[in-house]
Amino acid sequence: MPTREIPRHEWSAFLDSFTAVHRGWLVDVELLDPVLGDEVSAQSVPLIAATAGGPNEVELLLGEPHGATLTRVMKSVQGVWLQQSEEGADQSLAIDLGGGSKVLLRFPAPVLPELVDGVLAE
User: Fold this and answer.
1) Where in the sequence is the domain holding 42, given as residue range(s)?
2) The CATH number of the domain where 76 resides is what?
3) From CA 98, how far away is CA 75, in angstroms rounded?
4) Pick from 27, 109, 107: nearest CA to 72
5) Would 118 be classed as within a structural domain?
6) What is the pLDDT of residue 52?
7) What is the pTM of this model?
């Protein structure tokens, strides 16, 4: 599975594009921490947005656009990686928090965006 690091200077544009493609897609969010262990913080929740909130900050906004939402703000982010399937479908977004901790945003059923074009309501 190809994985690529997103250069820091591209975070804002990349996350805006990622959001535009995947808004409304169901995601799972998991915290991987070597000290506290792994914890699922969201499961099968629609993605509203992934944004760069500052030079070292990434924000995830999940939920229904006009309903309950979950916001996760990550500060002091060390890196952002995109993992794709061999076919090129986005599988997960890994956000490195440093110290071995990561937040993973995963698609339970990764598919190519063109295969769901027009299926999801805005």
Assistant:
1) 3-109
2) 2.70.180
3) 10
4) 27
5) no
6) 95
7) 0.84
